[in-house]
Amino acid sequence: MATHSLAPSLKRLLFAVKYASFQSRHCAVHNKAHYSTIYNASEKTFDKILIANRGEIACRVIKTCKKMGIKTVAVHSDVDSSAVHVKMADEAVCVGPAPTSKSYLNMDAIMDAIRATGAQAVHPGYGFLSENKEFAKRLAAEGVTFIGPDTHAIQAMGDKIESKLIAKAAKVNTIPGFDGVVETTEEAVKIAQDIGYPVMIKASAGGGGKGMRIAWNDEETREGFRFSSQEAASSFGDDRLLIEKFIDNPRHIEIQVLADKHGNALWLNERECSIQRRNQKVVEEAPSTFLDPETRRAMGEQAVQLAKAVQYSSAGTVEFLVDSNKNFYFLEMNTRLQVEHPITECITDLDLVEQMIRVAKGYQLQHKQEDVPINGWAFESRVYAEDPYKSFGLPSIGRLSQYQEPLNLSNVRVDSGIQEGSDISIYYDPMISKLVTYGATRAEALAKMEEALDNYVIRGVTHNIPLLREIITHPRFISGDISTNFLPEVYPDGFKGHQLEGDERRELLASAAALYITAQLRSQKVLGNQRLSSVPVECSCWTLCVELGKGHHEVEVTKSGDVYTVEVDGAKVEVSGQWNLASPLLPLSINGTHRMLQCLSRDASGEIVLQYLGTSFKVRVLSKLAAKLNSYMPEKIPEDTSSILRSPMPGTVVAVSVRPGDTVAEGQEICVIEAMKMQNSMTAVKQAKVKSVHCKPGETVGEGDLLVELE
């Protein structure tokens, strides 16, 4: 792989050392792609493609390019110099420092990289420059092919105001709203009053949930206008906003379209994307349980009508809101490859990246509408480095100290751009991967997703697997009774993790006790020699105290071979397994039921953290004597958080609204923290006087850093 930077030979040497082991992993991912791996080698496209993106989507594009025999060029910021997409590509070019505005959004640097490498075409992935018409124009001026639609379609559909007018003219159902740019806060309030609350305030440019706010009254409209315009300017360089009627309790269902430069266009069925937090998708599936064939066809035909109206050519997505009566309304069109495209590939066996490259070269589509199948069912869970216990997911940063994708399972696909040792930083989206499962039926695909989440090993950062697993196992989700309000309706007080039932609690306690005894017995031998242990070697029966939360449980444990029988709370639980303490995964049979647990940590004090049913539980296992002595230990007094404000996530301070001596009311904004281009308002939990301020605009803060003290 060529690396265009100050020390290319050194980088090549360093990358080569790691690349050998990476190649085997890459091949494993490719074998589980669940899209067509066959390519007609006689169909010539491009010799070299530059991918103007990073992370998992850059890796995804590179895989198809390798299949098609196309050389690839990766671009990267200085902090991404050892990233997976850089190692996968044939060449790599550093385009600037970490901030996206100076690297992945730096058009001048990317154009220089294109010239330096002789790339004939550019695939933009999603986000960054993927829907930037100026970038597409600059490529065209250089004679470089943009793998996506032409600038007219990008401009028409990228502007939500113009796209809505075009959709109306194309006889596509649209949401009632104001068909112009909202200039001021007071104008926004007046328009919202005229439309009628609730309303959606959103950025005219861009998407991905950024620059979007729901307002239910005048005050929320003023606040939403301010935050949406700031987020839009930060994310898209365009702070124009529009306002439309918010359809309460809808489903978010989108249609994948594919069109060529010869007037042919197809709809490749739908994706159900209703499970969202902060207007960003969390779990998607294809097809939707809600659509009947007639509604599916009507939505597909309207999506194609819109694509043809703007002479669209490439893969694109038309998003709709669907109410409980199956009335559907155009939301927006994304003129790029969508994050959740893998589930469409699973049920159609089409490689959408390959199709985009073919279309960009000028080939006609290979399929007719009647050729597009719905084969089976697919789910996608977006695995993020986020704390799901904070607003369903606030960003987490750190280094992946241990990382193992569940690719040993059949019908599992993982699209990722990281590996063990990778850093999750504050500069970019906190996505770790897209976990995709496939089955002949919905139930089969769902069961596989549950198994895959239990087998996914992630250490070093906080992640959202607890939330993902709870979503897919919830009765409402299993029955298909979902909407965009699913999370706030199911968890009105916020996500609290899995709530243990009686049998589940006994399973966890028994597993912890058995693991504790296994570790103690193992510690009696060092290189085959006996040594002292808190568990006598001749014992086969033990009495332990297991603490879980505020509960204290006395348990009796007996052992026969690899099987432990644990009596807890008056019931007997049989636990057996291979008990490999070196493995991050702990496959157990508990009363005859297979469970995959993960031992996240254990220490000499008897504290064990187990991931069970997706959620991490802290358990403490003590001998009877140690438990008695422990009762005399003083308890740590928790910090009074009512008088201090700490940052709930790593990020950048955008604004500070108070000074020492100011009096703040309960709920009043104190400061604004931006993380991964999402702005979060920090508010006072009580009325008080500001004692001191420990942050200022532009500063970077970590999770838990003190921001403001109140008297």
What does this protein look like?
Helix 6 crosses helix 7 and helix 13 packs antiparallel against helix 14. This protein is α+β, with helices and mostly antiparallel strands and 711 residues long. The chain starts with a strand and ends with a strand. It contains 18 helices and 41 strands. The relative contact order is 0.08.
Number of helical segments? Answer: 18
Low-confidence stretches: 5-31
What is the first-to-last residue Cα distance? 59 Å
Mean pLDDT equals 90
| Cα Rg | 27 Å
Strand order, sheet with most strands: 14-13-10-11-12-15-22-20
The amount of helix comes to: 25-40%
Quickly describe the structure:
The chain is an alpha+beta fold and 711 residues long. It starts with a strand and ends with a strand.
What key phrases describe this protein's structure?
eight-stranded antiparallel β-barrel; 18 helices; single chain; 29% helix; 711 residues; globular; alpha+beta
Blueprint (SSEs and pairs):
Elements: E1 2-4, H1 8-31, E2 48-51, H2 55-67, E3 71-77, H3 84-88, E4 91-96, H4 107-117, E5 121-123, H5 133-141, E6 145-146, H6 151-158, H7 160-169, H8 185-195, E7 199-203, E8 212-215, H9 218-236, E9 241-245, E10 251-259, E11 265-277, E12 280-286, H10 293-309, E13 314-322, E14 328-334, H11 341-348, H12 352-361, E15 377-384, E16 386-387, E17 394-395, E18 398-399, E19 402-404, E20 412-416, E21 423-424, E22 431-439, H13 442-454, E23 457-459, H14 465-472, H15 475-479, H16 486-490, H17 502-523, E24 525-526, E25 529-530, E26 541-548, E27 551-560, E28 563-568, E29 571-577, E30 585-590, E31 593-602, E32 607-612, E33 615-623, H18 624-630, E34 644-646, E35 651-656, E36 663-664, E37 669-675, E38 678-683, E39 688-693, E40 700-701, E41 706-710
Parallel strand pairs: 1-4, 2-3, 2-5, 3-4, 5-6
Antiparallel strand pairs: 7-8, 7-9, 10-11, 10-13, 11-12, 12-15, 13-14, 15-22, 16-17, 18-21, 19-23, 20-22, 24-25, 26-27, 26-33, 27-28, 28-29, 29-30, 30-31, 31-32, 32-33, 34-41, 35-37, 35-40, 36-39, 37-38, 39-41
